[in-house]
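User: I'm designing a mutation panel for VOC domain-containing protein and want to avoid disrupting the core. Could you give me a predicted structure to guide residue selection? Please restate the sequence first so the numbering is unambiguous.

Assistant: Good idea. Sequence first, for numbering, then the predicted structure tokens:
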Amino acid sequence: MAAAEGVCLNHIARESSDVNRLAKFYQEILGFERLETPKFGEFEVIWLKLPPAFSLHLIQRDLATKLPEGPFSATPGTIADPKNLPRGHHVSFAVSNYESFVQTLKDKGIEVFEKRQPDGKTKQVFFFDPDGNGLEVGSWPAPQ
């Protein structure tokens, strides 16, 4: 038996050197809604929500830590190939309009890697956000 009871995912946090750019990406590409965010003083934070209950917290990167910005990040324009993501670090979403969603990514110039599962039905697309964080979007039904 697990030590915790009633567990559910509350949010994922991502650091960024440009939280406004990253927020715009998640709003335009995946439909996140911007929430009122408390002020933290010395650094900027943006909270986003994907209904019904998933939140993404974008936090201004602390340059003093000298940690990499994201698992595959580099300077803009040198982000790793999305073909490396199926077994790598990524956050996954399901959409009901897979084909038009992928076309939108391509229309926006976002490099993608598409894959079909052995069942022949499930399609997946892998890509990066502007900070190099891996994303996967699949055609499977959303969990109930």
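For picking mutation sites, this is relevant: The mean pLDDT is 80. The chain has two domains: 9-61, 80-144.
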